[in-house]
Specification:
By secondary structure, the chain is α+β, with helices and mostly antiparallel strands. Helix content is 15%, strand content 25%. It has helices spanning 93-100, 105-110, 227-236, 261-276, 282-288, and strands spanning 27-30, 33-36, 40-42, 47-51, 77-80, 87-92, 114-117, 138-139, 149-153, 167-172, 181-187, 198-201, 205-214, 221-226, 243-244, 299-300, 305-306, 311-312.
Length: 314
């Protein structure tokens, strides 16, 4: 089904997949760090791309706890491949969890979701169709079981632009951490720069966001953050009231809730700190272009951002 065919009067008018310059799987660059977008979302006024929260992280590859790890502020510009103007970071689960003082260890470790608001000039260039797999058929709210078929589309710069290496097929290894994490095994596995890419189940429903590269339970497996929990968390704490762009094309909310005052204040402090932060040394810049991959750490490569064994796949 084409992306325009699934649009309704209450939803944005999306471009055809064949002509759209922005689709799920588009590269995003946050302060130079490359990630892969997952799905398209929208509310009454704005079209968004999803990415991983850790894509805007400023700490080391071993900082996997979103309740403690540092992040760029909401409002940070994000370059999107295919867009004529930068988007902006509209929501980040790490920023939100720190603002409200989240204590749930499962959420702290695996609530790894962010939204990039596209510039209105680019909204008409968007298709929600995932390359190879099409428009999501809905949102999986029931999780995954061991052996369930999964698929994904990664777009790391490390693949050198070879499109045949981007589609990934595999199966789930179940779920853990209160349903927040879905270990998966795919061919090929997610690599640094694939961070944030979306995962679909066998029915074509969106269920997760690539978060980590793992050593356990098997080398080469990935940890996928649960999308339905991340969206519910965002809405419950005053984040954007977005809808997943899928074949149901649900009407967007009548009004978009404002973020809590605590989150707004935290973002302002981060912006102020960023303005006063000295520029990194050349040595720091050189280190940022290398790959780091270790157990329980985030992964960066050419500043594509990720999380291994739980290392971020950035």
């Amino acid at each position: 089904m084409s992306s325009s065919a699934v649009a309704s009067a209450a939803s944005p008018t999306f471009a055809e997949a064949s002509s759209a310059s922005i689709r799920p799987g588009a590269m995003t660059f946050t302060d130079g760090a490359q990630c892969t977008s997952n799905f398209v979302f929208y509310d009454a006024k704005t079209v968004y791309l999803g990415q991983a929260a850790h894509c805007s992280g400023t700490g080391g590859a071993d900082e996997t706890n979103g309740c403690l790890a540092k992040s760029l502020a909401v409002g940070t510009p994000v370059d999107v491949a295919g867009a004529s103007r930068p988007g902006r970071l509209a929501y980040n689960s790490w920023v939100m969890m720190q603002a409200i003082g989240e204590k749930d260890p499962d959420a702290c470790q695996y609530n790894d979701f962010a939204l990039v608001a596209l510039d209105p000039a680019d909204a008409g260039k968007v298709s929600p169709s995932v390359p190879t797999f099409g428009v999501p058929t809905g949102l999986n709210t029931s999780g995954t079981a061991a052996g369930d078929a999964v698929r994904s589309y990664g777009n790391s710069q490390l693949r050198g632009g070879i499109a045949l290496l981007s589609p990934k097929f595999g199966f789930a290894l179940g779920q853990d951490s209160g349903g927040w994490n879905h270990p998966v095994l795919t061919v090929t596995p997610g690599i640094p720069g694939d961070s944030g890419s979306g995962f679909l189940d066998a029915r074509g429903r969106a269920f997760g966001v690539l978060s980590t590269l793992s050593v356990l339970p098997l080398p080469g497996t990935n940890g996928v953050s649960d999308l339905s929990r991340a969206l519910n968390y965002m809405r419950a704490h005053g984040g954007p009231g977005v809808v997943l762009a899928d074949t149901t094309q649900a009407a967007p909310p009548a009004a978009v809730a404002s973020a809590p005052a605590a989150a707004t204040k935290l973002a302002a402090r981060k912006r102020s700190a960023a303005r006063s932060r000295p520029r990194p040394s050349q040595a720091r810049k050189r280190r940022a272009t290398g790959c780091k991959q270790r157990k329980s750490s985030r992964v960066r490569c050419s500043k594509p951002r990720s999380r291994t064994g739980s290392a971020r796949t950035r």
